[in-house]
């Protein structure tokens, strides 16, 4: 599996235009340093003040002299998803070709921007996202609670989004082709912490190609606003809802295939065998069941599980592989010989 190696702050031609979106909420300690580290490959920077109690947008407007920076104020707190969508809309209106989202708390090195933009420029991805789990040596720096939480969330996200080859779904370091972003149902995407996972589900409905970009996990003195106990239920419900929607959209609404039949028959056999066995067990009131009764309950369950496993293999092999849009024109020479990142 190849990795994407890129020198820091690689220059891009004036076209295509790269815009960076920075959600701003209680990040006044770090955001000026983040902006200062964004290289010349970026043409525009949109700082979105999401009704920040620290007035971080006003802080940037008063202290930042970078001409690329434009501050956007949300009239009310919309959450990270709402802030990013506001930045996306502004960048699309400004004519950006690639939209990069970086947090303002300093955990995401702006110097890696070229790694996220490169696959989109090459026509190898429609959307790129960070993966802090690629280098096992660097994973040791991640707190144990975050490590276990991300592992669980990653498995749920694989099932709900259909991108079985991706990991670290809540990673907020992302880049997206502007024409793909323009097709997103921005008003329906989750506006809170489920934003990144919900966005992956929406991208799968578009059949967009998503690529993981290896990056280091960095945890310094940043303060996280995420409370696991508060969002766990929302994440579970969100993933279950998206999982059901994805199966319906991909296997029954848009297309009917052998996998659709495997899913229907598998579920019917498992549920039928389980129901028959439960009824017989309750009717016999503890009396031993005959071998025939056991087989009549067990055989449909076994066959159903085999069909569901076959469907799962089909689903895993159906990850989008062909990008929605070709490589962007005026590709800089400094990116010509780059390899595709992991997860492609």
Automatic annotation (TrEMBL):
The keyword Membrane applies. Keywords: Membrane, Transmembrane, Transmembrane helix. It comes from the Bacteria. Pfam families: Glycos_transf_2 (PF00535). The chain crosses the membrane at residues 261-279, 291-314. Residues 20-179 form the Glycosyltransferase 2-like domain. The keyword Cytoplasm does not apply. PANTHER family: RFBJ PROTEIN (PTHR48090:SF7), UNDECAPRENYL-PHOSPHATE 4-DEOXY-4-FORMAMIDO-L-ARABINOSE TRANSFERASE-RELATED (PTHR48090). This is Glycosyltransferase family 2 protein. It comes from Luteimonas flava.
